[in-house]
Amino acid sequence: MMRTLMAGLAMLALAPCAAAQETEITFTAQSGESVVAYEGRFDVPESREDPDSRMLSLAYVRFPATGSDPGSPIVYLSGGPGGSGIGTARGRRFPLFMAMREFGDVIALDQRGTGDSNDIERCVSSVSIPDAEAITDDEYADAYRAAAEECRAVWIGQGVDIEAYTTVESAHDLSDLRRHLGADRVSLWGISYGTHLALAAMRQMPGEIDRVILASAEGLDQTVKLPSRTDAYFARLQDAVNTQPAAAAAYPDIAGLMRRVQSRLEAEPVLLQIPLEDGSIAPFLLQRRTMQEAASMLIADPGSAAILLALYASVDQGDYRLATGLLQRMHSPGEPIGLWGMSTAMDLASGISDARLEQFEAEAATGLVGPYLNAPMPQIRGVWDGFDLGEDFRQPPVSDIPTLLLTGTLDGRTYPEGQIEAVSGLTRVTRITVENAGHNLFMTSPEVGEAMARFMRGQSPVGDTITVELPDFTELPF
Protein backbone atom coordinates (compact mmCIF):
# COMPACT_ATOMS: atom_id res chain seq x y z
CA MET A 1 0.00 0.00 0.00
CA MET A 2 2.76 2.45 0.98
CA ARG A 3 4.70 1.62 -2.20
CA THR A 4 1.58 2.31 -4.30
CA LEU A 5 1.02 5.64 -2.52
CA MET A 6 4.63 6.74 -3.06
CA ALA A 7 4.44 5.79 -6.74
CA GLY A 8 1.30 7.86 -7.09
CA LEU A 9 3.00 10.87 -5.48
CA ALA A 10 5.94 10.50 -7.84
CA MET A 11 3.64 10.50 -10.86
CA LEU A 12 1.97 13.68 -9.59
CA ALA A 13 5.35 15.34 -9.19
CA LEU A 14 6.27 14.52 -12.78
CA ALA A 15 2.96 15.62 -14.30
CA PRO A 16 2.39 19.14 -15.61
CA CYS A 17 0.63 21.57 -13.25
CA ALA A 18 -3.11 20.98 -13.45
CA ALA A 19 -3.91 24.66 -14.07
CA ALA A 20 -1.25 25.17 -16.74
CA GLN A 21 -1.12 24.16 -20.39
CA GLU A 22 2.40 22.83 -20.89
CA THR A 23 4.38 20.69 -23.32
CA GLU A 24 6.77 17.97 -22.21
CA ILE A 25 10.28 18.50 -23.55
CA THR A 26 13.77 17.14 -23.13
CA PHE A 27 15.74 20.06 -21.73
CA THR A 28 19.43 19.86 -22.59
CA ALA A 29 22.00 21.96 -20.76
CA GLN A 30 25.19 23.29 -22.33
CA SER A 31 27.03 20.54 -20.43
CA GLY A 32 25.13 17.94 -22.45
CA GLU A 33 23.03 16.81 -19.48
CA SER A 34 19.34 16.29 -20.21
CA VAL A 35 16.20 16.17 -18.09
CA VAL A 36 12.46 15.91 -18.66
CA ALA A 37 10.88 19.33 -18.27
CA TYR A 38 7.76 21.23 -19.34
CA GLU A 39 7.50 24.31 -21.53
CA GLY A 40 4.69 26.69 -20.73
CA ARG A 41 3.35 30.10 -21.59
CA PHE A 42 0.92 32.49 -19.97
CA ASP A 43 -0.60 35.71 -21.23
CA VAL A 44 -0.38 39.08 -19.48
CA PRO A 45 -1.42 42.59 -20.52
CA GLU A 46 1.52 44.63 -21.77
CA SER A 47 0.11 47.56 -19.77
CA ARG A 48 -2.36 46.94 -16.97
CA GLU A 49 -3.28 50.64 -17.06
CA ASP A 50 -4.54 50.36 -20.64
CA PRO A 51 -7.81 48.46 -21.06
CA ASP A 52 -7.00 48.02 -24.75
CA SER A 53 -3.45 46.81 -24.13
CA ARG A 54 -2.05 44.13 -26.36
CA MET A 55 -1.28 40.83 -24.66
CA LEU A 56 2.20 39.41 -24.12
CA SER A 57 2.97 35.69 -24.12
CA LEU A 58 5.55 34.97 -21.42
CA ALA A 59 7.60 31.77 -21.57
CA TYR A 60 8.98 29.51 -18.87
CA VAL A 61 10.38 26.03 -18.40
CA ARG A 62 9.22 24.02 -15.40
CA PHE A 63 11.49 21.41 -13.88
CA PRO A 64 9.22 19.14 -11.82
CA ALA A 65 9.86 18.60 -8.14
CA THR A 66 11.74 15.50 -7.05
CA GLY A 67 11.31 15.68 -3.27
CA SER A 68 8.81 13.55 -1.33
CA ASP A 69 7.13 16.63 0.13
CA PRO A 70 7.48 19.44 -2.41
CA GLY A 71 6.56 22.97 -1.46
CA SER A 72 5.54 25.96 -3.55
CA PRO A 73 6.97 26.46 -7.04
CA ILE A 74 10.35 28.20 -7.00
CA VAL A 75 10.60 30.95 -9.63
CA TYR A 76 14.09 31.88 -10.82
CA LEU A 77 14.50 35.59 -11.59
CA SER A 78 17.44 36.36 -13.84
CA GLY A 79 19.63 39.45 -13.61
CA GLY A 80 20.44 42.19 -16.07
CA PRO A 81 17.84 43.55 -16.46
CA GLY A 82 17.48 41.56 -19.65
CA GLY A 83 18.79 38.12 -18.73
CA SER A 84 16.95 34.96 -19.70
CA GLY A 85 15.96 32.57 -16.93
CA ILE A 86 15.65 29.72 -19.43
CA GLY A 87 19.08 30.55 -20.82
CA THR A 88 20.54 30.63 -17.32
CA ALA A 89 19.17 27.16 -16.61
CA ARG A 90 21.10 25.83 -19.62
CA GLY A 91 24.39 27.22 -18.35
CA ARG A 92 26.73 26.64 -15.41
CA ARG A 93 23.91 26.86 -12.86
CA PHE A 94 22.05 23.87 -14.31
CA PRO A 95 23.13 21.59 -11.39
CA LEU A 96 21.73 24.12 -8.92
CA PHE A 97 18.40 24.23 -10.76
CA MET A 98 18.30 20.44 -10.52
CA ALA A 99 19.17 20.45 -6.81
CA MET A 100 16.47 22.99 -6.00
CA ARG A 101 13.81 20.56 -7.30
CA GLU A 102 14.01 18.83 -3.92
CA PHE A 103 11.87 21.66 -2.56
CA GLY A 104 9.34 22.20 -5.34
CA ASP A 105 8.89 22.70 -9.05
CA VAL A 106 11.59 25.04 -10.32
CA ILE A 107 10.43 27.61 -12.85
CA ALA A 108 12.99 29.16 -15.19
CA LEU A 109 11.11 32.30 -16.24
CA ASP A 110 11.86 34.57 -19.14
CA GLN A 111 10.61 37.91 -17.82
CA ARG A 112 8.72 40.23 -20.15
CA GLY A 113 11.01 41.56 -22.85
CA THR A 114 13.64 38.83 -22.40
CA GLY A 115 14.55 35.55 -24.08
CA ASP A 116 11.53 33.67 -25.41
CA SER A 117 9.24 36.32 -23.88
CA ASN A 118 10.63 39.10 -26.06
CA ASP A 119 9.09 40.46 -29.25
CA ILE A 120 10.84 43.85 -29.11
CA GLU A 121 13.54 44.25 -31.72
CA ARG A 122 16.89 45.59 -30.55
CA CYS A 123 17.06 49.18 -31.70
CA VAL A 124 20.19 50.19 -33.60
CA SER A 125 20.13 53.98 -33.56
CA SER A 126 21.67 56.42 -36.01
CA VAL A 127 23.92 57.78 -33.23
CA SER A 128 27.54 56.67 -32.91
CA ILE A 129 30.33 57.20 -30.41
CA PRO A 130 33.38 58.06 -32.56
CA ASP A 131 36.09 55.41 -32.30
CA ALA A 132 39.08 57.58 -33.10
CA GLU A 133 38.07 60.96 -31.67
CA ALA A 134 38.27 62.22 -28.12
CA ILE A 135 34.88 63.05 -26.58
CA THR A 136 33.91 64.34 -23.16
CA ASP A 137 31.71 62.59 -20.61
CA ASP A 138 28.97 65.10 -21.41
CA GLU A 139 29.20 64.33 -25.12
CA TYR A 140 29.00 60.60 -24.32
CA ALA A 141 25.85 61.24 -22.26
CA ASP A 142 24.31 63.39 -25.01
CA ALA A 143 24.89 60.63 -27.56
CA TYR A 144 23.13 58.01 -25.43
CA ARG A 145 20.27 60.38 -24.64
CA ALA A 146 19.76 61.00 -28.34
CA ALA A 147 19.86 57.25 -29.01
CA ALA A 148 17.34 56.54 -26.24
CA GLU A 149 14.95 59.19 -27.61
CA GLU A 150 15.28 57.77 -31.12
CA CYS A 151 14.77 54.19 -29.98
CA ARG A 152 11.71 55.07 -27.94
CA ALA A 153 10.12 56.47 -31.10
CA VAL A 154 11.12 53.36 -33.05
CA TRP A 155 9.57 51.00 -30.49
CA ILE A 156 6.37 53.00 -30.26
CA GLY A 157 6.20 53.00 -34.05
CA GLN A 158 6.39 49.20 -33.94
CA GLY A 159 3.35 49.07 -31.66
CA VAL A 160 5.27 48.45 -28.44
CA ASP A 161 4.06 50.16 -25.27
CA ILE A 162 7.65 50.54 -24.15
CA GLU A 163 6.72 52.47 -21.01
CA ALA A 164 4.94 49.36 -19.71
CA TYR A 165 8.29 47.65 -19.19
CA THR A 166 8.78 48.38 -15.51
CA THR A 167 9.65 46.33 -12.46
CA VAL A 168 6.14 46.93 -11.12
CA GLU A 169 4.57 45.37 -14.21
CA SER A 170 6.99 42.44 -13.97
CA ALA A 171 5.95 41.90 -10.34
CA HIS A 172 2.32 41.73 -11.50
CA ASP A 173 3.48 39.15 -14.05
CA LEU A 174 4.77 37.00 -11.18
CA SER A 175 1.34 37.10 -9.57
CA ASP A 176 -0.23 36.02 -12.87
CA LEU A 177 2.34 33.23 -13.16
CA ARG A 178 1.39 31.98 -9.70
CA ARG A 179 -2.27 31.80 -10.72
CA HIS A 180 -1.36 30.15 -14.01
CA LEU A 181 0.53 27.44 -12.12
CA GLY A 182 -2.44 26.89 -9.81
CA ALA A 183 -0.30 27.58 -6.76
CA ASP A 184 -1.35 29.36 -3.57
CA ARG A 185 2.15 30.79 -3.19
CA VAL A 186 5.52 30.80 -4.90
CA SER A 187 9.07 31.13 -3.65
CA LEU A 188 11.39 33.56 -5.42
CA TRP A 189 15.05 32.93 -6.22
CA GLY A 190 16.90 35.83 -7.79
CA ILE A 191 20.31 37.30 -8.49
CA SER A 192 21.31 40.91 -9.23
CA TYR A 193 18.42 42.64 -11.04
CA GLY A 194 16.36 39.53 -10.26
CA THR A 195 16.61 40.53 -6.58
CA HIS A 196 15.42 44.04 -7.49
CA LEU A 197 12.31 42.41 -8.96
CA ALA A 198 11.96 40.05 -5.98
CA LEU A 199 12.10 42.97 -3.52
CA ALA A 200 9.41 44.79 -5.50
CA ALA A 201 7.26 41.65 -5.49
CA MET A 202 7.67 41.28 -1.70
CA ARG A 203 6.00 44.66 -1.34
CA GLN A 204 3.42 44.15 -4.07
CA MET A 205 2.27 40.56 -3.50
CA PRO A 206 3.38 39.61 0.05
CA GLY A 207 0.60 37.10 0.67
CA GLU A 208 1.62 35.14 -2.41
CA ILE A 209 5.26 34.49 -1.47
CA ASP A 210 6.61 31.68 0.73
CA ARG A 211 10.37 32.26 0.79
CA VAL A 212 12.93 34.37 -1.02
CA ILE A 213 16.58 33.73 -1.90
CA LEU A 214 18.54 36.84 -2.87
CA ALA A 215 22.09 36.74 -4.19
CA SER A 216 24.08 39.87 -5.03
CA ALA A 217 21.11 42.00 -4.06
CA GLU A 218 20.22 45.24 -5.82
CA GLY A 219 17.93 47.46 -3.75
CA LEU A 220 15.02 49.37 -5.19
CA ASP A 221 17.05 52.62 -5.01
CA GLN A 222 20.24 51.03 -6.33
CA THR A 223 19.85 50.89 -10.09
CA VAL A 224 22.78 53.32 -10.04
CA LYS A 225 25.55 52.39 -7.58
CA LEU A 226 27.56 55.02 -5.71
CA PRO A 227 31.14 55.59 -6.97
CA SER A 228 32.43 55.72 -3.38
CA ARG A 229 31.34 52.12 -2.97
CA THR A 230 33.12 51.13 -6.15
CA ASP A 231 36.26 52.70 -4.68
CA ALA A 232 35.70 50.70 -1.48
CA TYR A 233 35.49 47.56 -3.62
CA PHE A 234 38.94 48.31 -5.04
CA ALA A 235 40.26 48.59 -1.49
CA ARG A 236 38.88 45.11 -0.76
CA LEU A 237 40.41 43.86 -4.01
CA GLN A 238 43.77 45.27 -2.89
CA ASP A 239 43.47 43.38 0.41
CA ALA A 240 42.80 40.16 -1.53
CA VAL A 241 45.72 40.79 -3.88
CA ASN A 242 47.97 41.39 -0.88
CA THR A 243 47.38 37.81 0.32
CA GLN A 244 49.36 36.57 -2.73
CA PRO A 245 53.04 37.63 -2.64
CA ALA A 246 53.53 37.62 -6.40
CA ALA A 247 50.33 39.56 -7.01
CA ALA A 248 51.12 42.00 -4.21
CA ALA A 249 54.48 42.69 -5.82
CA ALA A 250 52.89 43.19 -9.24
CA TYR A 251 50.03 45.36 -7.99
CA PRO A 252 51.10 47.13 -4.79
CA ASP A 253 48.75 50.11 -5.33
CA ILE A 254 45.76 49.33 -7.54
CA ALA A 255 44.04 52.67 -7.01
CA GLY A 256 47.27 54.56 -7.68
CA LEU A 257 47.89 52.53 -10.84
CA MET A 258 44.39 53.25 -12.15
CA ARG A 259 44.58 56.96 -11.42
CA ARG A 260 48.02 57.22 -13.03
CA VAL A 261 46.91 55.50 -16.24
CA GLN A 262 43.66 57.45 -16.45
CA SER A 263 45.39 60.78 -15.83
CA ARG A 264 47.94 60.06 -18.55
CA LEU A 265 45.26 59.07 -21.07
CA GLU A 266 43.14 62.08 -20.17
CA ALA A 267 46.08 64.32 -21.04
CA GLU A 268 47.23 62.32 -24.07
CA PRO A 269 44.98 59.57 -25.49
CA VAL A 270 46.71 56.81 -27.48
CA LEU A 271 45.63 55.89 -31.01
CA LEU A 272 45.56 52.09 -31.42
CA GLN A 273 45.27 50.12 -34.64
CA ILE A 274 42.85 47.20 -34.23
CA PRO A 275 43.30 44.31 -36.71
CA LEU A 276 39.99 43.05 -38.12
CA GLU A 277 39.05 39.59 -39.39
CA ASP A 278 39.06 40.76 -43.00
CA GLY A 279 42.67 41.90 -42.70
CA SER A 280 41.89 45.60 -42.47
CA ILE A 281 42.81 47.91 -39.61
CA ALA A 282 40.43 50.04 -37.54
CA PRO A 283 41.76 53.03 -35.58
CA PHE A 284 40.65 53.34 -31.97
CA LEU A 285 41.52 56.12 -29.54
CA LEU A 286 42.28 54.74 -26.07
CA GLN A 287 41.03 57.32 -23.59
CA ARG A 288 40.46 57.67 -19.88
CA ARG A 289 36.79 56.88 -20.46
CA THR A 290 37.69 53.69 -22.33
CA MET A 291 39.62 52.40 -19.34
CA GLN A 292 36.82 53.29 -16.93
CA GLU A 293 34.28 51.50 -19.11
CA ALA A 294 36.56 48.45 -19.26
CA ALA A 295 36.99 48.51 -15.49
CA SER A 296 33.22 48.65 -15.03
CA MET A 297 32.80 45.52 -17.15
CA LEU A 298 35.65 43.56 -15.59
CA ILE A 299 35.10 43.93 -11.85
CA ALA A 300 32.08 41.68 -11.40
CA ASP A 301 34.15 38.70 -10.25
CA PRO A 302 37.72 38.11 -9.02
CA GLY A 303 38.68 36.20 -12.17
CA SER A 304 37.74 39.04 -14.48
CA ALA A 305 39.36 41.51 -12.09
CA ALA A 306 42.66 39.77 -12.85
CA ILE A 307 42.20 40.86 -16.48
CA LEU A 308 41.59 44.41 -15.31
CA LEU A 309 44.79 44.47 -13.28
CA ALA A 310 46.83 43.17 -16.20
CA LEU A 311 45.20 45.66 -18.55
CA TYR A 312 46.07 48.68 -16.42
CA ALA A 313 49.59 47.42 -15.69
CA SER A 314 50.36 46.83 -19.36
CA VAL A 315 49.02 50.21 -20.46
CA ASP A 316 51.00 51.81 -17.65
CA GLN A 317 54.14 50.26 -19.18
CA GLY A 318 53.26 51.42 -22.69
CA ASP A 319 52.31 47.91 -23.83
CA TYR A 320 48.95 47.99 -25.64
CA ARG A 321 48.74 44.38 -26.82
CA LEU A 322 46.21 43.30 -24.20
CA ALA A 323 44.11 46.42 -24.78
CA THR A 324 44.15 45.73 -28.51
CA GLY A 325 43.21 42.08 -28.00
CA LEU A 326 40.28 42.98 -25.73
CA LEU A 327 39.02 45.53 -28.23
CA GLN A 328 39.18 42.88 -30.96
CA ARG A 329 36.88 40.71 -28.84
CA MET A 330 34.53 43.29 -27.40
CA HIS A 331 34.27 46.21 -29.85
CA SER A 332 32.68 46.50 -33.28
CA PRO A 333 34.28 49.44 -35.13
CA GLY A 334 31.87 52.14 -36.22
CA GLU A 335 28.81 50.38 -34.78
CA PRO A 336 26.02 52.81 -33.83
CA ILE A 337 24.57 52.79 -30.33
CA GLY A 338 22.15 49.89 -29.93
CA LEU A 339 19.64 49.51 -27.10
CA TRP A 340 17.46 46.67 -25.84
CA GLY A 341 13.92 47.73 -25.01
CA MET A 342 13.40 45.88 -21.74
CA SER A 343 16.70 46.72 -20.10
CA THR A 344 16.57 50.38 -21.13
CA ALA A 345 13.00 50.83 -19.91
CA MET A 346 13.45 48.93 -16.65
CA ASP A 347 16.48 51.01 -15.65
CA LEU A 348 14.81 54.28 -16.60
CA ALA A 349 11.67 53.38 -14.67
CA SER A 350 13.45 52.32 -11.47
CA GLY A 351 15.56 55.44 -11.87
CA ILE A 352 17.47 57.42 -9.29
CA SER A 353 16.31 60.10 -6.86
CA ASP A 354 17.45 63.72 -7.09
CA ALA A 355 19.39 63.40 -3.84
CA ARG A 356 21.14 60.20 -4.86
CA LEU A 357 21.94 61.66 -8.29
CA GLU A 358 23.55 64.67 -6.64
CA GLN A 359 25.65 62.38 -4.45
CA PHE A 360 26.55 60.22 -7.45
CA GLU A 361 27.74 63.16 -9.52
CA ALA A 362 29.87 64.53 -6.69
CA GLU A 363 31.52 61.14 -6.13
CA ALA A 364 31.91 60.32 -9.83
CA ALA A 365 34.13 63.36 -10.34
CA THR A 366 36.95 61.62 -8.44
CA GLY A 367 35.80 57.98 -8.42
CA LEU A 368 38.02 55.34 -10.00
CA VAL A 369 35.46 54.36 -12.65
CA GLY A 370 33.85 57.79 -12.83
CA PRO A 371 30.22 57.67 -13.98
CA TYR A 372 30.50 54.43 -15.97
CA LEU A 373 29.67 51.49 -13.67
CA ASN A 374 26.01 51.42 -14.71
CA ALA A 375 26.27 53.42 -17.94
CA PRO A 376 24.16 54.49 -19.73
CA MET A 377 22.50 55.14 -16.38
CA PRO A 378 22.27 57.71 -14.93
CA GLN A 379 23.34 59.46 -18.15
CA ILE A 380 19.92 58.86 -19.75
CA ARG A 381 17.92 59.48 -16.59
CA GLY A 382 14.76 61.45 -17.37
CA VAL A 383 15.18 61.24 -21.14
CA TRP A 384 11.64 59.86 -21.44
CA ASP A 385 9.73 62.66 -19.75
CA GLY A 386 7.69 61.51 -16.77
CA PHE A 387 8.82 57.89 -17.02
CA ASP A 388 9.90 57.10 -13.47
CA LEU A 389 8.30 54.92 -10.80
CA GLY A 390 9.01 57.54 -8.13
CA GLU A 391 10.26 57.71 -4.60
CA ASP A 392 7.62 55.44 -3.09
CA PHE A 393 8.82 52.62 -5.34
CA ARG A 394 12.44 53.16 -4.31
CA GLN A 395 11.81 52.73 -0.58
CA PRO A 396 13.05 49.40 0.88
CA PRO A 397 10.18 46.92 1.28
CA VAL A 398 8.99 46.03 4.77
CA SER A 399 8.30 42.30 5.10
CA ASP A 400 8.51 39.30 7.40
CA ILE A 401 8.83 36.80 4.54
CA PRO A 402 11.76 34.44 5.31
CA THR A 403 14.68 35.62 3.19
CA LEU A 404 18.19 34.34 2.54
CA LEU A 405 20.76 36.93 1.46
CA LEU A 406 24.03 35.72 -0.10
CA THR A 407 26.74 38.37 -0.49
CA GLY A 408 30.17 38.08 -2.09
CA THR A 409 32.89 40.21 -0.54
CA LEU A 410 34.54 40.78 -3.94
CA ASP A 411 31.34 41.59 -5.79
CA GLY A 412 32.19 44.53 -8.05
CA ARG A 413 28.62 45.14 -9.21
CA THR A 414 26.43 45.09 -6.09
CA TYR A 415 28.33 46.00 -2.97
CA PRO A 416 28.02 44.54 0.56
CA GLU A 417 27.07 47.87 2.13
CA GLY A 418 24.31 48.38 -0.41
CA GLN A 419 23.00 44.86 -0.01
CA ILE A 420 22.53 45.43 3.71
CA GLU A 421 20.57 48.59 2.92
CA ALA A 422 18.49 46.75 0.31
CA VAL A 423 17.07 44.35 2.92
CA SER A 424 16.90 46.85 5.81
CA GLY A 425 13.11 46.59 5.99
CA LEU A 426 13.06 42.78 6.14
CA THR A 427 12.69 41.27 9.61
CA ARG A 428 13.45 37.59 8.90
CA VAL A 429 16.73 37.71 6.98
CA THR A 430 19.41 35.04 7.11
CA ARG A 431 22.62 36.66 5.89
CA ILE A 432 25.54 34.59 4.61
CA THR A 433 28.77 36.20 3.45
CA VAL A 434 30.75 34.38 0.78
CA GLU A 435 34.33 35.49 1.33
CA ASN A 436 36.33 36.04 -1.88
CA ALA A 437 33.30 35.48 -4.12
CA GLY A 438 32.17 38.01 -6.68
CA HIS A 439 28.84 38.88 -8.25
CA ASN A 440 28.22 35.42 -9.73
CA LEU A 441 28.58 33.48 -6.51
CA PHE A 442 26.18 30.55 -6.89
CA MET A 443 28.66 28.03 -8.29
CA THR A 444 31.73 29.17 -6.33
CA SER A 445 31.33 26.48 -3.66
CA PRO A 446 29.07 23.49 -2.90
CA GLU A 447 28.50 25.17 0.46
CA VAL A 448 26.44 27.87 -1.26
CA GLY A 449 23.98 25.25 -2.53
CA GLU A 450 23.98 23.56 0.87
CA ALA A 451 23.13 26.86 2.56
CA MET A 452 20.25 27.36 0.12
CA ALA A 453 18.99 23.84 0.83
CA ARG A 454 19.05 24.37 4.60
CA PHE A 455 17.16 27.63 4.17
CA MET A 456 14.49 25.97 2.01
CA ARG A 457 14.09 23.28 4.70
CA GLY A 458 13.63 25.95 7.35
CA GLN A 459 16.88 24.99 9.07
CA SER A 460 19.39 27.37 10.59
CA PRO A 461 22.62 27.84 8.63
CA VAL A 462 25.75 25.99 9.66
CA GLY A 463 27.52 29.34 9.84
CA ASP A 464 27.26 32.87 8.52
CA THR A 465 30.40 32.72 6.35
CA ILE A 466 31.51 30.59 3.42
CA THR A 467 35.08 31.03 2.18
CA VAL A 468 36.09 30.26 -1.39
CA GLU A 469 39.53 30.19 -2.95
CA LEU A 470 40.86 33.27 -4.69
CA PRO A 471 42.13 33.04 -8.27
CA ASP A 472 45.79 33.71 -8.93
CA PHE A 473 45.69 37.42 -9.72
CA THR A 474 48.87 37.16 -11.77
CA GLU A 475 47.25 34.77 -14.28
CA LEU A 476 44.70 35.65 -16.93
CA PRO A 477 41.61 33.37 -17.05
CA PHE A 478 41.98 32.77 -20.81
Keywords:
single chain, Rossmann fold, two-stranded antiparallel sheet, 17 helices, 17% strand
Poorly predicted segments:
1-18
Shape: globular
Q: What is the CATH architecture assignment of the domain at 2-119 and 162-223 and 391-467?
A: 3-Layer(aba) Sandwich
Category from helices, strands and their pairing: alpha/beta
Descriptive overview:
The protein has 478 residues and is α/β, with parallel strands linked by helices. It has a domain at 2-119 and 162-223 and 391-467: Alpha/Beta hydrolase fold, catalytic domain (Rossmann fold, 3-Layer(aba) Sandwich), CATH 3.40.50. The chain has 17 helices and 14 strands. It has helices at 2-14, 85-90, 94-100, 137-157, 167-181, 193-204, 227-241, 245-250, 254-267, 288-298, 302-316, 321-330, 341-350, 354-364, 391-394, 416-422, 446-457; strands spanning 22-28, 34-45, 55-63, 74-77, 106-109, 123-124, 186-191, 209-215, 270-275, 281-286, 338-339, 403-408, 429-435, 465-467. It has a 10-stranded mixed β-sheet, with helices on both faces. The chain has a two-stranded antiparallel ribbon with strand order 6-11. A two-stranded antiparallel ribbon has the order 9-10. β9 (270-275) and β10 form a beta hairpin. α9 (254-267) runs antiparallel to α10 (288-298) and α10 runs antiparallel to α11. The longest helix has 21 residues, at 137-157. It is globular. It starts with a helix and ends in an 11-residue tail after the last strand. The relative contact order is 0.14.
